[in-house]
Amino acid sequence: MSRQESDPDRTPSPRADVCIVGAGPAGALVASELATAGHDVVVLDAGPRFDPADRMERMERRIRPAHGPLSVWDMGGERDAFTSEGDMYYPLNAARVKGVGGTTLHWQGMVYRLHEADFERQSRDGVTDDWPIGYDDLQTYYAEAESELGVAGADDNPFAPPREEPYPMPAFKPSYSDSIFARACEELGITTHSSPNARNSEAYDGRVPCQGYGTCKPVCPSGAKYDATVHVARAEEAGARVIDRAPVQRLEHDSSGDTIEAAVYATPDGEEHRQEARQFVLAAGGIEIPRLLLLSKSEQYPDGLANSSGLVGKYFMDHVAARVGGTIDQETRQNHVGFITTESHQFYDDGGAERGPFKLEFLNYAGPSPVGEALTSGSEAPWGDSLLEHIRESYGNYLEVTGLCAQTPQKSNRVELNPDVTDDHGNPVPEIHWSIDDRTRRTIEAANERQLAIMDELGADVGWVVGPDNTGPAFHHMGTTRMGEDPAESVVDPACRTHDLDNCWVASSSVFVTGGALNPTLTIAALSLRVADRLDSEL
Questions:
Q1: Phi, psi (5° rounding) for residue 260?
Q2: Distant-in-sequence, close-in-space partners of 351: CB < 8 Å, separation ≥ 6
Q3: Distance (Å, rounded) from C-alpha 307 to C-alpha 487?
Q4: Structure letter (DSSP) for residue 517
Q5: CA nearest neighbour of 275 among 539, 11, 48
Q6: Which of 44, 131, 506, 510 is surrounded by the fewest CB atoms within 10 Å?
Q7: Which DSSP string corresponds to 236-294?
Q8: How far apart are CA 529 and CA 531, in angstroms?
Q9: One-letter-per-residue 3-state SS of 295-327
Q10: Coil vs helix vs strand at 226
Q11: What's the predicted TM-score (pTM) here?
């Protein structure tokens, strides 16, 4: 084993144009773009590098009941400690990964452009705030992001924003259960359409087409689904340094207080190092970015860096779930596809002030899988014919309509520090305050109403409803360093540079002013490419 493999050099680079905190999709894209343009780039990530050869074994952890869900990507423990307060418990670690590649290592791979109205909710509906940029400002970056990630899709969504170019790959065909839902939706006048996915429907970018493992979340063994290690590798090939297991402890500014001088990071040997750079990009997500800024308080900035507005950590948002599921008296072929191929955005933009946007998703993985049933049947059906009969009775006729609902931004929803609980380096952990307001509740109720109508049209025996009183998050962390023109009402400007520090940029969904009801990764990628363009010009 080489020294680089066994004992990588984690000392700081003597010169860096850009220091990026976080090696998820945002940080990886910025690093790849800037390194390719010839700039000296250093990326610091809190987690380890994962060996791609281990993905099959991680899939085994996913399906075997002896392993808890956090074990798939080695999450949990003192390093990942957090607390949750407020009306609703927020299970932060249930769906994040600390490591090179970030949460794209286990994401579902669903990618959408925000609707034009998502940038203009105050102007159109009289609620929340408008973004200081619009869809037109991101349209070319959305197209570039689709090409970089590799998106399979079709231009068949009549409710989607305009586009000028085809998707890089054709969409995945509708599944068998999609055809069952389609008949009911046609009777109810509900328009369905394909769902774009950041996974290969054909060979693309040196990666194989989807192999159908069905364990997309939390692990794709084949690499057909995009993850940020693709752009980490490109960045390194172009000369960037990516340092793993290097959690940044704080950012230090110069005597003027206008510029960050260094990111102070820890290494596994117990040392601390200072990485100096001309520019800094925070790309560690909607929880760790505000936490780092708050941890970086100084005599000059007693409330934390970039926080003259007092809004660092405020307006935390997520998407919330609405789900209806059950069984029907016919075969559905559940779990044959591990991702969503059909949706409906028909009710996305018609809520006005009364409710927010939502989309309907038709699951291809509702109900128990045969493997899951076999491994958890226990004494009821231990082996042989009895096990086969048990699986046949419990598999094959489940359906579920789920939905992603927008959460109205609230200042009281926030990420702050809990000084009474510390991580493995003695730093206060993030504390999440999360609740939903009446408008968000009405959004979930509206989604449930449509979902129940579809299941009723199918003659389904409804087995569960996830509504306003038992909803949960989609784990899309947004809004904690919001974007705006006014430094008193926002943390970053329309270019994603902090108002308070002239060399500190944020590439993350933390800059979102509103979240819409669409998975945020494509917008994160588009904003990151835009940040890279501006940084290239600055450098």
A1: -80, 135
A2: 125, 357, 358, 443, 446
A3: 9
A4: T
A5: 11
A6: 131
A7: HHTT-EEE-S--EEEEEE-TTSSSEEEEEEE-TTS-EEEEE-SEEEE-SHHHHHHHHHH
A8: 5
A9: HCCCCCCCCCCCCCCCCCCECCECCEEEEEEEE
A10: coil
A11: 0.96
Complete DSSP assignment for 446-511: HHHHHHHHHHHHTT-EEEEEE-TTT--B----B-TT-B-S-TTS-SB-TTSBBSS-TTEEE-SGGG
Locate 393 and state its tokens: 């009775």
Query: Which amino acid does the sequence have at 487?
Result: P
Tell me the residue type at 401.
V
The span from the CA of 89 to the CA of 532, in Å, is 36
The per-type count for the chain, helices as H runs and strands as E runs, is: 12, 19
> Which among 149, 164, 230 has a CA at the least distance from the CA of 196?
149
Contact (CB, 8 A) for 447 and 343: no
Sheet-wide strand order for 193-194: 193-194, 342-344, 358-362, 398-405, 320-327, 461-466
Q: What CA–CA distance (Å, rounded) separates 342 from 337?
A: 12
- What lies within 8 Å, CB to CB, of 415 at 6+ separation is 286, 287, 290, 291, 313, 316, 430, 431, 432, 433, 480
CB atoms within 10 A of CB 485: 11
Q: Are 401 and 181 in contact (CB under 8 A)?
A: yes
pLDDT by residue, tens only, the chain of 539 residues? 233 345 789 999 998 999 999 999 999 999 999 999 999 999 999 999 999 999 988 888 887 777 777 888 999 999 999 999 988 999 999 889 999 999 999 999 999 999 999 999 999 999 999 999 999 999 999 999 999 999 999 999 999 999 999 999 999 999 999 999 999 999 999 999 999 999 999 999 999 999 998 888 889 999 999 999 999 999 999 999 999 999 999 999 999 989 999 999 999 999 999 999 999 999 999 999 999 999 999 999 999 999 999 999 999 999 999 999 999 999 998 888 999 999 999 999 999 999 999 999 999 998 888 877 777 766 666 778 888 888 887 888 999 999 999 999 999 999 999 999 999 999 999 999 999 999 999 999 999 999 999 999 999 999 999 999 999 999 999 999 999 999 999 999 999 999 999 999 999 999 999 999 999 999 999 999 999 999 999 99
The residue whose two tokens read 């995009």 is 226
Distance CA 164, CA 143 (A): 9
